[in-house]
Inverse folding.
């Protein structure tokens, strides 16, 4: 590990140099791949099935040997290192957790430190800490993998990969076998972990949404193992390099791209509110066409239209609201709040969930348009 | 021996209950010990051959076709015929019988070990390799613990067959429970013949019961402790593997 500290941090952590993998003389699974993977960043390999993304990942830790070309880890040719040692220096998380069913959760997490000669008590103590890091209750450690839910197993898989504190994490579709709600949780957890740990993460997925959420950089692979585009996710969505990438990132890419535009400059308009406990009092009238119903803490709970004010006396009778926009979040969230609101007014809240005011869809569009003009000037010298 | 009746079952009962038959170097307990001795020797040799071979084939997947067809041929060999063949080819005494029994015991043990190792979830093996376990560590720390139940099933099937068939030793040397069968036939003593057969059958059932108990405790705690519903598919797959390792050989 000492070589890692000595090396200049400018050197990419992993370098693919004209790497080709051909199985049994067929068409290449990976074709002349040259790519640098940045230190301390999340690099996502994405593409349709059969595009060689998993093969590329597995060549990094020599689970697959390239037919030709070189892969450098921190400047060192991986093929010159002992496969088992190389693999122990990287965390590996796979689609199905791959936990050893006959060992307790704690002992599963402690596997690699034990292989590296860490004492049993020490390895277990560290494993117990990692349970907390990945958001699992401490008493789950004594259980066996078969007693955990799919999402919990994936968390244990992540903890196991982190156990030896490796500088590199390889993740092969780690969240694709869990349901969408759990997947979103796990993605957020990974980003939270990464803020603290700053590992070099190589992440394989077939889901372009996941790729753009997680990736600092995204590598889009085309069928036949060709690297079609390698760029920041924002750029992949905004400027796909060819028809294949454009087709792969899909119809909603314009909308998804809004996820990368900050909403700091958006105007928040005041909104008339009515408190819950005053609803029942018919003498309290409303002046605006749409009045926001809030509770004692100022949190929004739906809308009161002026025309039906008389018939709304309880919270349950109010018109349900749309999605909430947290101040400072992306333009995509702001637009969604406005479009999903029955009043056309996107309710904006602060970090504690208290209503601050509303945003209007038309003004979000203005911001989107002016951002586009700025980019047009910068990228193409065209301000229209 | 004089019996009080011509009835086969009465003769059998009288032979079994005669204290003379339960003592001395020619008594039933001594014969049982001799019999178990041959079973033990046979199983030691068979396991020394079949366990490493089964582990190699199960772990690497190499030589699978050869093993499957080879086992088919071995199973078709008549044990008694092999005893005489070995006796004619090599030597007199008990060794030809033991080698013939080894040929009988190798197929179930080998297929059980092979099935046990290869029944372990390949994803778990792949994950273990990705983490940096060496091939030996994968075999000993992942595949053997998880495949142990099926592997013991193979040994169990082998022992059952050898206990029942080790009677052939008596053709070469007056040893083991087969003696009662040979003598019973030669002197036309039906009580001895069928009584001996009953002792062999009871011994076989007892040994098999003991093995069943060992097999039950060979399941790692983690595999017993699955959530209701979770992993039930995997579990039924294991049961099938257990069944085929045992049923395929009997």
């Amino acid at each position: 590990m000492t070589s890692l500290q000595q090396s200049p941090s400018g050197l990419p952590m992993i370098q693919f140099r004209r790497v080709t993998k051909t199985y049994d003389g067929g068409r290449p699974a990976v074709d002349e791949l040259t790519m640098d993977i940045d230190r301390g960043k999340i690099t996502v390999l994405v593409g349709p099935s059969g595009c060689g993304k998993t093969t590329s990942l597995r060549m990094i830790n020599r689970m697959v040997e390239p037919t030709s070309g070189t892969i450098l880890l921190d400047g060192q040719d991986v093929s010159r290192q002992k496969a088992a040692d190389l693999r122990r220096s990287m965390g590996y998380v796979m689609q199905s957790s791959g936990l050893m069913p006959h060992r307790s959760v704690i002992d599963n997490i402690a596997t690699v430190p034990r292989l590296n000669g860490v004492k049993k008590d020490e390895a277990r103590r560290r494993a117990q800490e990692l349970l907390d890091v990945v958001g699992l209750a401490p008493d789950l450690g004594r259980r066996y993998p078969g007693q955990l839910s799919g999402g919990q197993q994936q968390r244990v898989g992540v903890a196991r990969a982190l156990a030896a504190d490796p500088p590199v994490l390889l993740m092969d579709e780690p969240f694709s076998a869990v349901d969408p709600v759990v997947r979103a949780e796990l993605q957020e957890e990974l980003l939270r972990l990464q803020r603290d740990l700053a590992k070099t993460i190589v992440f394989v997925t077939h889901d372009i949404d996941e790729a753009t959420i997680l990736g600092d950089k995204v590598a889009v692979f085309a069928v036949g193992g060709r690297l079609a585009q390698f760029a920041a996710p924002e750029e992949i969505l905004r400027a796909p390099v060819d028809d294949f990438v454009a087709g792969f990132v899909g119809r909603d890419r314009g909308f998804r791209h809004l996820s990368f535009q900050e909403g700091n400059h958006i105007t928040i308009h005041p909104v008339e509110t009515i408190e819950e406990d005053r609803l029942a009092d018919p003498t309290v009238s409303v002046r605006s066409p749409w009045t926001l119903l809030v509770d004692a803490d100022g949190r929004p709970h739906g809308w009161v239209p002026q025309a039906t004010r008389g018939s709304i006396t309880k919270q349950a009778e109010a018109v349900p609201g749309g999605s909430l926009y947290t101040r400072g979040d992306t333009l995509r969230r702001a637009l969604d709040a406005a479009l999903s609101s029955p009043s056309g007014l996107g309710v904006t809240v602060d970090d504690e969930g208290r209503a601050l005011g509303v945003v209007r869809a038309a003004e979000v569009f203005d911001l989107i348009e002016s951002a586009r003009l700025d980019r047009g000037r910068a990228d193409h010298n065209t301000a229209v | 021996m004089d019996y009080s009746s011509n009835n086969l079952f009465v003769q059998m009962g009288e032979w079994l209950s005669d204290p003379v038959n339960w003592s001395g170097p020619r008594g039933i307990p001594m014969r049982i010990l001799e019999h178990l001795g041959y079973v033990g020797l046979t199983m030691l040799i068979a396991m020394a051959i079949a366990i490493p071979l089964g582990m190699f084939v199960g772990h690497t997947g190499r030589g699978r076709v050869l093993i499957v067809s080879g086992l088919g041929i071995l199973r078709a060999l008549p044990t008694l015929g092999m005893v005489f063949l070995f006796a004619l080819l090599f030597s007199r005494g008990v060794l030809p019988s033991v080698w013939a029994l080894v040929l009988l015991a190798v197929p179930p043990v080998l297929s059980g070990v092979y099935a046990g190792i290869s029944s372990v979830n390949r994803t778990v093996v792949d994950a273990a390799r990705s983490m940096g376990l060496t091939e030996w560590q994968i075999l000993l720390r992942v595949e053997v613990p998880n495949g142990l139940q099926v592997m013991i099933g193979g040994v169990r099937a082998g022992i059952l067959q050898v206990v029942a068939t080790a009677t052939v030793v008596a053709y070469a040397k007056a040893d083991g429970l087969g003696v009662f069968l040979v003598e019973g036939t030669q002197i036309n003593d039906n009580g001895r013949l069928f009584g001996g057969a009953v002792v062999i059958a009871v011994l076989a059932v007892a040994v098999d019961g003991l093995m069943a108990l060992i097999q039950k405790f060979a399941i790692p705690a983690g595999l017993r402790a699955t959530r209701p519903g979770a992993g039930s598919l995997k579990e039924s797959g294991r049961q099938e593997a257990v069944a085929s390792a045992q049923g395929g050989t009997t």
In short: The CA atoms of residues 61 and 84 of chain A lie 9 Å apart. Chain A is about 35% helix and 20% strand.
